[in-house]
Design brief:
The complex is a heterodimer of chains A (about 290) and B (about 575). Chain A is α/β, with parallel strands linked by helices and about 290 residues long. Chain A folds into two domains: about 1-120, Glutathione S-transferase Yfyf (Class Pi), Chain A, domain 2 (Up-down Bundle), CATH 1.20.1050.140; about 130-290, Rossmann fold (3-Layer(aba) Sandwich). Chain A has helices spanning about 10-15, 15-30, 50-65, 75-90, 95-105, 120-130, 130-135, 150-155, 160, 170-180, 200-220, 230-240, 255-265, 270, 275-285; strands spanning about 1-5, 30-35, 70-75, 115-120, 140, 145-150, 180-185, 225, 255, 285-289. In chain A, helix 2 crosses helix 13 and helix 6 crosses helix 7 (about 130-135). The longest helix of chain A has 17 residues, at about 50-65. Chain B has about 575 residues and is mainly α. Among the domains of chain B are: about 70-155; about 180-280, no CATH class; about 450-560, Fumarate Reductase Iron-sulfur Protein, Chain B, domain 2 (Orthogonal Bundle). Helices cover about 65% and strands about 0% of the residues of chain B. Chain B has helices at about 1-25, 40-55, 60-70, 75-80, 80-100, 105-110, 120-145, 155-180, 185-195, 200-215, 230-240, 255-265, 265-270, 275-295, 300-315, 320-335, 340-345, 360-375, 380-390, 400, 410-420, 430-445, 480-485, 485-490, 495-500, 500-510, 515-520, 520-525, 530-535, 540-560, and strands spanning about 375-380, 565-570. Chain B has a two-stranded antiparallel sheet. In chain B, helix 1 runs parallel beside helix 14, helix 8 crosses helix 12 (about 255-265) and helix 22 crosses helix 30. The radius of gyration of chain B is 34 Å and the shape is elongated. The chains are: A alpha/beta (about 290), B mainly alpha (about 575).
């Protein structure tokens, strides 16, 4: 199993732990990752300003992966959604594809419309499979309640992203359950983390985040499991900086899914980029599988 | 006389220019941390910081950086071998030429009492160093002109630097070639050093001249081949006795000797017309021009870049005095050599093909920032260009990671963004929202029913050409989009906060009032969660339509701005 590893812009510098933990976990599950240094912006941050520029940026990444004859494994939900949407738009409209290829030609690239894009969670659930993951687990969690945060751009628009059932998805919950932790039911499971508005309308952005954290806390979760750098950073920022006079943290911490899974697979905290506090807390719940 | 005058003049211009540029490091303000710090505080902090660093253990770190990263360019080598190789050729070769050849009386003469520019190893080394510089220039031109990839266009500033270097090198080498062939110089040397008299030693002189013509490329009007072997042997004897001690075989000056061979057919007329003197003027005048203009050209990086690398090694930006950080930001503008590596690795450089704003590319953004910082006022257009350019950045940090001279580009962009916001040009979403919101208010304040005449602007931008973007026309106003919207749900009185709600936007579009739709704050408060689009019973691409409207609003707001606006930038950036 080989994929072109699409890290996106935010993960490598601002959330290195997501990269290191994903690499470690995927290595443990025999998934080969190919790094393509020329990968650039997925196109997501350009959408507000110029959809064509965004699509061009998407097309460039798809073409780069095609050049290596690989499909893409993406860590970021926004990146996943944007790449999927771009790929779908290019497949649907040959004129648009031609237009993009005229630009890409100047970099000796050409996209033929045949690159598929998968999110990390899809690869873990569908390509690797829960059975295989269970085999690699050495210790599992007991009595640990986790709130899964799906992330908007993984779920919707469902006809394009085809990640899971957009109304009652199960994929992430099953992945969390595999670690022995209990995925709790909570009303804000499918809602937005607030991340896309960070820097545009901070107070609104944090109100949405607050709602999610409070919901997870009320459901008794100790951690919110994420698989997207924007969501993770949004929750981390909120819990670290306590903006807008907020006092309560609802006893919930964000954790990246590969960190959660990595501990069960016996990977060490440094590799997973887990801080001491979160790492020790998670380890308290670990028992021999 | 002219030489001395030009030397002191160029030294004076260089000195004053450098002082002026160095003063700018304490004057230019980039970023919020720099805004309220007076120049005197910045100079004081820099002096304090430098003294306390030099008299601490950190001085060893400085020494290490000086040798590894400045002298041998280790920092650059770690980032790009090609760049290191080409730059090392130019820097190493030129530095050797400057010290050993340019300053021969001060340095080489003092170090080696028997020094003569015509003697080996000096003669050979001079040409070797020049060959390295030429090779470096060739590699640089190859990279700038022929290498593929999304490199920024080279500017007059870049070509000035390359041209000055090339003129100095080529004039020097051709001068050497004409000197090798020169009969006048040969006769001068005979007179001065060999102690031979034209009348008394005529036959010996002829033998020596024959030997030099035959063996060393001198072009003589009197002696021409084929030579008699006996005369040549006699000439060689005289050469060994009278000349060889001070003059190595000119073949060792391999570049000049090559030129001498090439110009042989017309060397004599060149010699008589004083072409050598002309070249000599070109050579030293270009050197002095380069020196005088150094502070105002790209060459100033030879001062700013090593300083930047040294400061990087000893300054922790998290703990440093804000005044020193401000000074470093300003110095970094001069450390940039416009090599373009940041642009090649930039995550969003591809956007430039669709949005032709050069300020998207980090190398061009820095150039624009340097230009802005050197002036008192900036016009609307200029500031809009850099605002858009600075906005189209994903903060991926690659530019900073790959910069071969260690500029903290990401910090510059953050500072620039903050300054732009301070001038009334925040990030595009906020700026467009404010600009469009102002227009929207007047439309509603007219106090009469809305006119149902279509406004200009069709929903046809971006993906808008695709049929799904026109899907708003089938909206039947069930308000599902608005009811599922998490943003609408969070406000008690959403209409007041966000303007038109999602279903109202679709309705406004159906009525042809694109202007009202573009003015709604909802566009910019949309979290793009796609719930509205997912739930719409009519299959309207609500979220995607909002994206198209945002694109249109960005263009419209930019057009509507007052092009005549001038901003005083005395408080920041300048």
């Amino acid at each position: 199993m080989r994929f072109a590893f699409f890290l996106g812009c935010t993960t490598p510098f601002h959330l290195k732990a997501y990269e290191t933990s994903s690499r470690a976990v995927l290595r443990g599950l025999d998934v080969d990752l190919v790094d393509i240094a020329r990968f650039g912006c997925c196109g997501y941050p350009l959408k507000n300003v110029d959809l064509k520029a965004s699509l061009l940026s998407t097309a460039r990444n798809l073409a780069l992966a095609r050049k290596e004859d690989l499909h893409i494994l993406c860590l970021c939900k926004c990146g996943f959604g944007t790449l999927k949407q771009g790929a779908a738009a290019l497949l649907k409209d040959p004129r648009l594809l031609d237009e993009m290829n005229r630009h890409l030609e100047k970099e000796d690239l050409c996209y033929d419309g045949r690159c598929e894009v998968f999110h990390l969670l899809t690869v873990l659930h569908k390509h690797v499979g829960l059975e295989m993951i269970r085999k690699k687990i050495r210790k599992s969690y007991k009595d640990l309640k986790i709130a899964t945060h799906y992330g908007c751009h993984a779920l919707r628009p469902s006809e394009i992203v085809r990640f899971d059932d957009s109304v009652s998805p199960k994929l992430f919950d099953e992945l969390v359950d595999t670690t022995g932790a209990e995925s709790v039911a909570w009303p804000e499971k499918l809602a937005c983390c607030g991340g896309p508005l960070l820097g545009i309308n901070d107070s609104l952005s944090f109100k949405l985040t607050e709602k999610k954290l409070a919901g997870a806390g009320q459901a008794g979760a100790r951690f919110i499991a994420t698989a997207c750098p924007f969501c993770q950073i949004q929750f981390e920022t909120m819990q670290r900086e306590y903006p807008f006079g907020r006092r309560e943290n609802h006893g919930v911490r964000p954790v990246l899914y590969p960190q959660l899974l990595g501990l069960c697979m016996g990977l060490d905290k440094e590799t997973l980029g887990l801080g001491n506090e979160d790492g020790s807390l998670l380890e308290q719940f670990l028992v021999a599988a | 006389m002219l030489f001395t005058f030009c030397l002191y003049l160029s030294l004076a211009v260089f000195g004053l220019g450098s002082l002026f540029k160095a003063f700018n490091w304490f004057r230019i303000k980039i970023g919020p941390g720099a805004r309220d710090i007076p120049v005197s505080t910045r100079i004081g902090a820099a002096v304090n910081g430098s003294i306390s660093t030099v008299f601490s253990k950190k001085v060893f770190l400085l020494l290490k950086v000086l040798i590894v990263d400045v002298l041998f360019q280790g920092w650059m080598l770690k980032r790009s071998f090609f760049r290191w190789a080409s730059h090392m050729c130019i820097w190493g070769g030129f530095a050797l030429l400057l010290v050993m050849h340019g300053l021969e009386q001060l340095v080489t003469g003092a170090l080696f009492p028997d020094y003569a520019s015509t003697l080996n190893p000096f003669m050979f080394l001079r040409d070797l160093a020049a060959a390295f510089v030429l090779l470096g220039i060739a590699l640089v031109l190859y990279r700038r002109l022929l290498m593929k990839g999304s490199r920024p266009k080279s500017t007059a500033r870049d070509y000035y630097a390359i041209t000055v270097l090339a003129v100095i090198m080529v004039s020097g080498i051709v001068l050497e070639g004409t000197q090798i062939t020169s009969h006048v110089i040969f006769r001068d040397m005979v007179e001065q050093y060999a102690g031979m008299d034209e009348q008394d030693d005529a036959s010996q002189l002829k033998a020596l001249e024959s030997y030099w013509v035959e063996a060393f490329g001198v072009v003589s009007p009197d002696v021409q081949g084929p030579m008699d072997a006996q005369i040549l042997a006699q000439g060689e004897e005289i050469h060994i006795a009278s000349c060889a001690d001070c003059h190595s075989r000119p073949q060792w000056a391999f570049l000049g000797y090559g030129v001498a061979g090439a110009i042989r057919p017309f060397a004599f007329s060149l010699d008589r017309t004083g072409f050598g003197t002309f070249l000599w003027y070109v050579h030293f005048l270009t050197c002095f021009l380069g020196l005088a203009l150094l502070p105002f050209s790209k060459f100033f990086h030879v001062v700013a870049t090593p300083l930047n690398l040294l400061i990087n090694a000893v300054m922790d930006e998290k703990k440093a005095h804000p005044a020193n950080i401000a000074t470093k930001r300003a110095l970094e503008l001069d450390a940039c050599t416009h090599c373009g590596d940041c642009t090649v690795r930039c995550s969003v450089a591809i956007a430039y093909r669709q949005i032709p704003n050069p300020a998207i590319l980090p190398s061009e953004k820095l150039a624009a920032l340097r230009k802005m910082a050197s002036r008192k006022k900036i016009g609307y257009r200029e500031i809009r260009v850099i605002q858009e350019g600075n906005h189209i950045c994903t903060g991926c940090h690659r530019c900073t990671d790959v910069c071969p001279v260690g500029i903290n580009l990401e910090a510059l962009w953050h500072g620039l963004g903050d300054d732009l916001a301070h001038l009334g040009y925040p990030r595009l979403e906020i700026w467009t929202r404010n600009a469009m919101g102002a227009m929207f208010e007047t439309a509603l304040q007219e106090g009469r029913p809305l006119l149902l005449e279509p406004s200009d602007g069709n929903v046809s931008e971006g993906y808008g050409s695709q049929p799904q973007m026109q899907s708003f026309s089938v909206c039947f106003g069930c308000q599902t989009c608005t009811n599922v919207c998490p943003v609408v749900a969070i406000f008690e009185n959403p209409g007041e906060q966000v303007g038109l709600l999602p279903h109202q936007i679709m309705h406004a579009l159906a009525l042809g009032r694109t202007d009202l739709a573009m003015g709604s704050g909802m566009l910019w408060d949309c979290v793009t969660c796609y719930l509205c689009q997912e739930e719409c019973p009519q299959g309207v691409y609500v979220t995607d339509v909002l994206y198209v409207l945002k694109n249109m609003a960005c263009k419209k707001a930019a057009e509507a701005g007052n092009a005549a606006t001038q901003h005083e930038i005395g408080g920041h950036l300048g």
